[in-house]
Automatic annotation (TrEMBL):
Family to which the UniProt record says this protein belongs: Belongs to the universal ribosomal protein uL29 family.
Protein name per Swiss-Prot or TrEMBL: Large ribosomal subunit protein uL29
UniProt xrefs under InterPro entries: Ribosomal_uL29 (IPR001854), Ribosomal_uL29_sf (IPR036049)
HAMAP family noted in UniProt: Ribosomal_uL29 (MF_00374)
UniProt keyword annotations, A-Z: Ribonucleoprotein, Ribosomal protein
Keyword Translocase: no
One GO term describing the cellular component: ribosome
Record keyword Ribosomal protein present: yes
Pfam family, one: Ribosomal_L29
Length: 67
């Protein structure tokens, strides 16, 4: 997901999206550990999505935009 798409969301929506990213990351790690994951690059993409979401959330909270 692109940063511009994340910035258009509110803090509550970002936190929900972050939760989804983390759940997907756990699922991908499990599939990778059991040798069922074909595309290992998806792990990297999900980790970047988590970092982007956390960055946007932190930016919003530092500016005081909790809405």
């Amino acid at each position: 997901m692109k940063v511009s798409e994340l910035r258009s969301l509110g803090v509550k929506e970002l936190e929900a999206k972050l939760k989804d990213f983390r759940q997907e990351h756990m699922n991908l790690r499990f599939r990778h550990a059991t040798a069922q994951l074909d595309n290992t690059a998806s792990l990297r993409l999900i980790k970047r999505g988590i970092a982007r979401a956390m960055t946007v959330i932190q930016e919003r909270k530092s500016k005081g935009q909790d809405a």
